[in-house]
Amino acid sequence: MRKIYILLMVLAPTLVCAQENYWIKTDSLFKYVQPVASLQFWSTYTMGEKAQLTEDGPMEAMQDRLNFMVRRARIGFKGKPYKKLGYAVMIQYDNMGKDRFSGVRGSTNTGQLGILDVYATWRVSKSEMASVTVGYFHPQISRECVTGDLLVNSFDKAPTQGYIRQHITGKGYGRATGVNLGGVTNKHRVTIEYNVGIFNNNTTSEEFTETSGRYWSPLVVDRVTFTIGDTERKSYAINYDANNYYSKRKGITVGLNSSMQSKTDIFTSNYAGGFDVLCNYNNWNIDGEWMYMERHTEGQIYNMKAGHVRAGYNIIVKDKIFLEPCFMVSVFEGDPGAQFSGEDRMYDVGINWYLNKKSCKLSLHYMKQEGNGDNNYTDEETFKKGDFAGLAFVLLL
């Protein structure tokens, strides 16, 4: 009996260890929960804004104005509790202090909080070839739509992203709940990355906002990129980084995008497709995209087109002064009767001072806006956006 007890005492830890092999062990606590925050403060001066002040009245000129605002503010958590599993939860409280009659695009905010992103990514392969992302996040289409809002080198992201997002998801923020499969591979200085996702679209019903209506059809989105030269990033992710690599990257990336959705209560089918390009070579940073959008209704086909081109050049004046003059042109065109119609153009010229790469930046820019029709620039009845000059400070923590 004594020998049996001794044998059991020796085997017990071994049996426990054997059982422990069934479970996936977590990594360190630091990787498990990491707080993150980002802030973007704007000071803008608007000229030439017009708006309708009385019902059925004409548009009237607004007085030019200085406006201080929190253009974007985000706080949340991210982590990688397991070697192949990471997550992100982000809350936004954007546009606090925004003047209704400033030339800045977007709605005003008197203090409301909102969910920006909630998702988890699980790498299902040994390499970076296959990862599954589930949650509430950007469908992977259009580089400008999936690049972080505070990371572009223009004063703000191209306003054309708003048309693409609203056409595909029905929401300005462009997020949807769904599942995405993606991965990346690199061989002989050529990198290929792919994404394909299926999403709910609960904003396509005019009467019931939490459903697609009587008819149901999922949103299917796909994207593939080809990179020659230096890669954009070392590992797969659903968010794209800054388009300025601070003169360290020599490479070009071309992306092809498409989306489709069949019948809902407000259309019989909905499509989008296009391409985007990012080129970094020594001091030059050049990117752009062009998207074609098509919506079929009963007996009608409506088209919209949107795109931009943007370029910056890095200049090192002396120690700790890293400057980037930058300009951008964005263009939207839509058929009469489409979701958005007419033309919307923006011209942005300015300079960025990177105090600590993307983490801390000062920007001074001027935006000229023009257009016609019924779109985010004007509806020719109730509002018309003005030009504005802006000073911005970005801080990423």
UniProtKB/TrEMBL annotation:
Parts forming coiled coils: none
InterPro entries in alphabetical order: Porin_dom_sf, Porin_O/P
Signal peptide segment: 1-18
Keyword annotations of the record: Signal
One Pfam assignment: Porin_O_P
Protein name, UniProt field: Porin
Species this protein is from: Ohtaekwangia kribbensis
Lineage start: Bacteria, Pseudomonadati, Bacteroidota, Cytophagia, Cytophagales
